[in-house]
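Lab notebook, bench 4. Still working through the backlog of constructs that have no structural model yet. Next entry is a single chain of 342 residues. Request: give me the structure tokens for it.
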Amino acid sequence: MGRLEGCSQIALDTEADSLHCYFEKLCLIQISAEGGHWLVDPLAGLDLQPLFDVVCSRRLVFHGADYDLRLLRRAGSFEPSDLFDTMIAARLCGRTGLGLAALVEDFNGIKLSKASQKANWAIRPLSGQMVDYALNDTRYLLEISARIEADLLQLGRWAWFEESRSRMIAATRETKERDDSKVWRISGSAALSPRAQAVLRVLWFWRDAEARAWDRPPFHVIGNEDMLRVADQVSKGNAYSTPRMNGRRRTSFEVVLSLALQIPESEWPRVEKVRRKRAHKDQLARFDALKKVRDAVAAELGLDPAIVAPRGAMEATAADTASSALMNWQRQLLGLEAVTHV
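Model written out:
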């Protein structure tokens, strides 16, 4: 850490094991600074707080910081005093390639390998290929950030960046509670019959319990497509093929499936009718006007219209002009007055 204390800015990235475990954990921290490039192993039982205290007092550079911030905060107190996100900045500059690999290729002419993109970062020791992949995640970030920051300033969009960054950081502090009454409604479930949905609901919670006990991602137990297929087939009384499972899990699966078929109709899920409040004529007119201005501004600035103003945010603003769905820099581009964001 002594070598980091003399650095004014530090590039950071993290790796986790969400593709391999149910209980995701921080597995690796990559650091690049003026003095070199390092890997920190959180699984080695280190006290990470002294490191966090040092790096958070410097300017930190991330690429897509939202996920990293959530992960790092689980490991200790992690509140950067200054943060630059190259993904946010690249988007506001109108760049089309927003991934780190695209930026490295554009700015440095180097094509990064994606060979370890889905690696299990909890394994030890790390292979040489994994080490190289991890180090490359921060190796070029400081140089890239300097060049993109210069572009932001030249374009006069620094204030856009600051507000976008603040909103991103605020979003990472929000905790979403799982709604057990809806969490099982996976993509494709709405097309199932009520009885098939009852079966699917049981299978979803069975899978979740199995994944927790095994500490593996739910798709390792059974995939969504297989659950939908089995639920649909058994609800119609048709034969079905059991997904590949070991003996104990297969037996458990068959028992749970049998019980699910005995659920009385009175307990089947009901079709959720989402009644959207019909937009008033004036509201529709305001939305159309906002969209027209948005599209014209986006074309003039060479930006994706969704960056200037996402559709959902425009709908919220058309319904309530005082809505904070749009950031103030977006409202300014659309000719709207600024609002105080709570």
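Notes after review: The domain at 2-172 is CATH 3.30.420.10 (Nucleotidyltransferase; domain 5). The chain has a mean pLDDT of 94. Flag for follow-up if needed.
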